[in-house]
Amino acid sequence: MALPYPVVDTDIHNVVSARRIQECLAEPWRSRYAAGSRGPGHLGYWNPNGVMRSDTTLPDGSKLEGSPDGLATEFLGRYGIDIGILNPAGTLHMGLSPDPDYAAAVCHAENRVVADDWLTADPRYRASITIAPNDPHQAADEIHRWAGHPGFVQVLMCSGARMPYGQRYYHPIYEAAAAHGLPVAIHPGTEGIGIAYPSTPAGYPSTYFEWHTGLVMNYIAHLVSLVCEGVFIRFPALRFVFIEGGVSWLPPVLWRFDKNWKALRQSTPWLERPPSEIAADHVRLTTQPIEEPPSSTRCSACSPPRGC
Amino acid sequence: MSPDTRVAVAEVAELPPGARKLVEVEGKSIGLFNVNGTVVAILNACPHELAPVCRGRVTGTTLPSPPGEFRWGRDGEILCCPWHGWEFDLLTGEALADKRRLRTYPVTVEGGTVYVQV
Ligand code: FES
């Protein structure tokens, strides 16, 4: 059925072939990748249902999320999606590798494969430029490299971090993204791994269930940091996207944020208007997976302001 | 201001620049402040949650600035509520970060006496 507006899927997790990434890596990284050293490792949290959909095997035995043509036909086509943004999540954890040069090389190789194998496969595809924020200058270089490509529409990095994302260390990333009009997005999955801190300020949770439920704490920390540090004042063109972190936490956090601003604004004199207004202008959230309260009317506080 | 409705509340000599005095006028607690030479009168009730705001710190504040820079200014012009720290401009009564404002009263100084009209 035709809808009166285009449908954009903002968060498609295609799986980029490891063989192709390996082919696109220069030495010494290719040998390292081939030997199986592919990142800082995971904590081993286990989702008994798997993280990806389990009904995506194509007739030839391959997986839908690994096939540029298959995904276009069986997913974009089947569900009437006009634009699909590819966020290949498999490399995000490189951003928490202690080795920033290897991380930058793998991200670049992945972006190369996305450009060559995926963005060429269907005009509905768009993609994120994957970067490793553990070296913001190399990350900025990677943004400059791909920003002119019409298929790349945002910058994507891991949400697990070793310091809150508003801090000056990361500003080269924002400067580069803003210069090209690209939003910067973060995506969960890396909280607690590699050189990141534990996924909660209280320490490591025990189960995937607990870890996943608490991911919002990290999102809150990044949001508050980005606003307080004046990132959106330094880079007025910057937009920041919080992918896959839910939405229901945002209104009460902004209420608290505005209230504190009234008493504490003197520590951030560059914030000349309430944090909630700055967030409304610069921050976007994606809705999947959305919280499901007993009554959907409870979601009304989460409605976007001013018809955004 | 009609001379009939004003009330003498202090001698000018009691209120040198930077000084404050709390007075009662017609059952109201009012704070007198000499703000760098200008005497103002303020109801001693914070518009947020009614704290005795006139007992708060008188200070300066950080002026608007680019991120990462700090510019101190308005020394002696800012009253900080003792309960939740809201900052108020003593000269206008306005809060720096809220629409609510202090209740202010007209002040006149004549013959060495400070008068407030309540
Ligand atoms: S009562 Fe004055 S700031 Fe709350």
Topology:
The complex is a heterodimer of chains A (308) and B (118).
Chain A: E1 8-12, H1 18-24, H2 29-34, H3 68-79, E2 83-86, H4 100-118, E3 125-130, H5 136-146, E4 152-158, H6 171-179, E5 184-187, H7 208-213, H8 215-228, H9 231-234, E6 240-242, H10 250-264, H11 275-282, E7 283-285
Chain B: E1 6-11, E2 20-25, E3 28-35, E4 38-43, E5 57-63, E6 71-80, E7 87-89, E8 104-105, E9 107-110, E10 113-117
Describe the structure.
The complex is a heterodimer of chains A (308) and B (118). Chain A has 308 residues and is of the alpha/beta class. Chain A is built from eleven helices and seven strands. Chain A has one domain: TIM Barrel (Alpha-Beta Barrel). The longest helix of chain A has 19 residues. Chain A is globular and about 60 Å long. In chain B, 0% of the residues lie in helices and 48% in strands. At the A-B interface, helix 9 and helix 10 of A face strand 5 of B. Bound molecules: FE2/S2 (inorganic) cluster. The site of FE2/S2 (inorganic) cluster has 9 residues of chain B, from loops.
CATH level-4 homologous superfamily of chain B: Rieske [2Fe-2S] iron-sulphur domain
What shape does the CA trace of chain A take?
A: globular
The stretches of 5 or more residues of chain A where confidence is low (pLDDT under 50) are none
**Number of helical elements of chain B:** 0
Oligomer: heterodimer
Counted up, domains of chain A total: 1
Q: Poorly predicted ranges of chain B (pLDDT <50, ≥5 residues)?
A: none
**CATH-level-4 superfamily name of chain A:** Metal-dependent hydrolases
Rg of chain A, rounded, reads 19 Å
The run of helices and strands of chain A is EHHHEHEHEHEHHHEHHE
**Second CATH tier, the architecture of chain A:** Alpha-Beta Barrel
List the bound ligands. FE2/S2 (inorganic) cluster
Helix vs. strand class of chain A: alpha/beta
- Supply the CATH class of chain B: Mainly Beta
The biggest sheet of chain A, with number of strands, parallel, antiparallel or mixed sense and barrel status, is: 7 strands, parallel
Q: Measured on Cα atoms, how large is the radius of gyration of chain B?
A: 15 Å
The fraction of residues in strands of chain B falls at: over 45%
Number of helices of chain A: 11
